[in-house]
Amino acid sequence: MERQPQDCWDNGYNPMLLRAWNANMDIQYILNPYSCIMYMLSYISKAEREMSDYLKRVIKDLSHDNPSDRECMKQVMNAYSKNREVSAQEAVARTCSLKLKSSSRSVIFIPTDDNAVKMSLPMKYLQTMDEDVENVWMTGFPDKYKARPNRPEFENMCMAEFASEYRIVYGRQKKGKLVLPLQQNMGHIQKITRGKPAVIRFARYSQQKNPEKFYGTLLKLYLPHRRDEQLKSTRFPTYESFYAFASVKLPGTDELQCVFNIVNTNREKYEKHNEAIEQTIEDFEKFSPVEDA
């Protein structure tokens, strides 16, 4: 970081990276995952002081008219919902219709809860269905994974890999290249060939507080299966016991493999630095944020 005295107010930068990035740089030296997360979150959660001042002025102006509590809350709600503090850069970008963000990766959320939120079928379908039909829900991503094509490359594919490397296609996209139909008429998928595989997101549970949900998430994401019954058994009735002690034969193999070995091997591909990040979260909850991190 050595520099000339006249450059003392310049942000830290790297000359070679600056030519490639061609935008502002403000490099900070960090030593651990906590500092990295703290640095990133401090940027995306900056306090909007101007908005707070604006709401204070609205409340102050209302005090002269002596409105009811209901009317006061209504005015504050309108002020909050219709106004937002923006930077000069964002104002210019919106005025000139410039792209506000760009990403090299798409992101997909995978529901893993046993009682995940579901959407019902559209009303036009419900009105034409028989009264005895109980399945009135739209299919979710786990359903589409279980109905993946009956082909060799899909047999030993876990749901994390399926979500990361394939996307659901609709309408005219179904006529594109590398499009495959799902079983049970659940739609079509297409392998991602442009760019990198998608980043997966999912609900995280504490191994100590919610062990069943924690191990259930691991099994659903990283153990190849086509039915929920393949994630438990009469001998191992819980997700935790099945993960720890069960062995299975994957399609195309005659050898029994430990479930935890299969899960951990697949997990390493999608959860980088997972233990360090979880430890960081625990430290944050126990000791509160370290302001000088």
From TrEMBL:
It comes from the Eukaryota. InterPro entries: PIF1_helicase. This is Uncharacterized protein. It comes from Cirrhinus molitorella.
